[in-house]
Design a protein that fits this description.
This protein is of the alpha/beta class and 146 residues long. It is 34% helix and 30% strand. The protein folds into two domains: 64 residues, GMP Synthetase, Chain A, domain 3, CATH 3.30.300; 66 residues, 2-Layer Sandwich (Histidine-containing Protein, Chain: A).
């Protein structure tokens, strides 16, 4: 007799298929009345972001509780992270060369500045989220022309 697929099974299957997630088995998933709780440890902030995005994309998921931690290898070097982030932003032709500033504290990146379109703000977020040592990103970039 075939087993009924549960919401929890669907979340796990989605995580297994996502190439952005290096070790989906390290993410614990539980569900209750449309709420998905994610726990565990992943290697990068962008991986954490992918896990949450995947869970939110599943039909029947009303809310996601993100208790995932990013495992940093050694002490983050804030200045190195800031330098790498600034270089990555400058190398991205879709972003204004001097329109975005980066602050880093204990591996947590805060982006500030102004861009014309939401796509540029999203691109900046995605660029810095991929950097090794980044534990999280706060995007305070203002979108608009004023």
């Amino acid at each position: 007799m075939p087993r009924n697929i549960t919401l929890e099974d669907e979340v796990r299957a989605t995580l297994e298929l996502d190439p952005r997630i290096a070790a989906p088995v390290e993410v614990a998933v539980s569900t209750h009345n449309g709420t998905v709780t994610l726990r565990g440890t992943v290697g990068t902030f962008s991986e954490r972001h992918a896990v949450v995005e995947d869970a939110k994309s599943i039909r029947g998921v009303d809310y996601v509780v993100d208790d995932i931690r990013v495992s940093l290898l050694g002490d983050p070097r804030d200045e190195e992270i800031r330098g790498a982030a600034l270089q990555m932003l400058m190398d991205d032709d879709a972003l204004p060369a001097s329109g975005i500033d980066v602050r880093v504290e204990n591996g947590w990146v805060t982006l500030t500045g102004r861009v014309r379109h939401q796509a540029a703000s999203d691109a900046a977020f995605n660029d810095v989220a991929r950097i090794t040592g980044v534990g999280g990103v706060t995007n305070k970039i203002t979108v608009g022309t004023e």
